[in-house]
């Protein structure tokens, strides 16, 4: 078994068990303790796991990158995802466009006519104005780091709509859930999915196996749009 396969298997087990022992892993992978140590070192350096006495636990992330940092990462992949997602929007539809750097890419490729966009993402405003797209901004508490509005006011305004489509960003996902770093953002994302006839999550490959405290929705409850592999 090659290194990449072993690393994936370790992560798969951790997603299910949350904590595993070195003894269990050496038997599961049929490797020596020294090989296992090297594998765990790789995963720990990548921030995927945390070593504990006699084993390892899944590293649940708490840090959150700013929109400025996210904007330039995985740029070509985000463009590909944005192009694919934009083609799903029909003419004369009401769309919730979640805040985020990947959802932001959709605007560049939007060709549908007479579309109305509802968003809580301030990073979208300039592009939408320049494209002359009918836009409604959801109010609420401004979170400057991610350029998003959240809170009670945002939730109340969101509930006035019945969306044809919703396109949602995520900070991470595994086999069970999509995640974000902020519970208030998670609530807005979840509600917009609930209020939509059809919803999609947009996430680039760097988000896979990234686990945060705030769950958005189950992995099988909404369709993921990702780059073709």
From TrEMBL:
SUPFAM superfamilies per UniProt: NagB/RpiA/CoA transferase-like, Winged helix' DNA-binding domain
UniProt keyword DNA-binding present: yes
Molecular function terms from GO: DNA binding; DNA-binding transcription factor activity
HTH deoR-type domain boundaries: 3-58
Transmembrane segments: none
Alphabetical keyword list: DNA-binding, Transcription, Transcription regulation
Pfam families linked to this entry: DeoRC, HTH_DeoR
Protein name: Transcriptional regulator, DeoR family
Organism: Anaerococcus prevotii (strain ATCC 9321 / DSM 20548 / JCM 6508 / NCTC 11806 / PC1) (Peptostreptococcus prevotii)
């Amino acid at each position: 078994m090659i290194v990449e396969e072993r690393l994936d298997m370790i992560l798969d087990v951790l997603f299910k068990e949350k904590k595993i022992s070195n003894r269990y892993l050496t038997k599961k992978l049929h490797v020596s303790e020294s090989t296992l140590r090297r594998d765990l070192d790789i995963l720990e350096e990548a921030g995927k796991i945390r070593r504990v006495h006699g084993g390892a636990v899944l590293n649940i992330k708490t840090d959150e990158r700013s929109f400025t940092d996210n904007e330039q990462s995985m740029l070509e992949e985000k463009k590909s995802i944005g192009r694919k997602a934009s083609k799903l929007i029909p003419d004369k539809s009401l769309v919730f466009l979640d805040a985020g750097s990947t959802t932001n890419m959709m605007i560049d490729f939007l060709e549908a006519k007479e579309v109305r966009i509802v968003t809580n993402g301030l990073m979208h405003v300039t592009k939408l104005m320049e494209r002359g797209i009918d836009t409604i901004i959801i109010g609420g508490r401004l979170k400057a780091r991610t350029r998003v509005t959240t809170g009670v006011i945002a939730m109340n305004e969101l509930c006035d709509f019945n969306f044809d489509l919703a396109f949602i960003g995520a900070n991470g996902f595994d086999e069970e859930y999509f995640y974000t770093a902020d519970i208030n953002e998670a609530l807005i994302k979840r509600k917009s999915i609930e209020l939509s006839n059809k919803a999609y999550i947009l996430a680039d490959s760097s988000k896979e196996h990234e686990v945060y405290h705030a769950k958005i929705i189950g992995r099988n409850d909404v369709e993921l749009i990702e780059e073709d592999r």
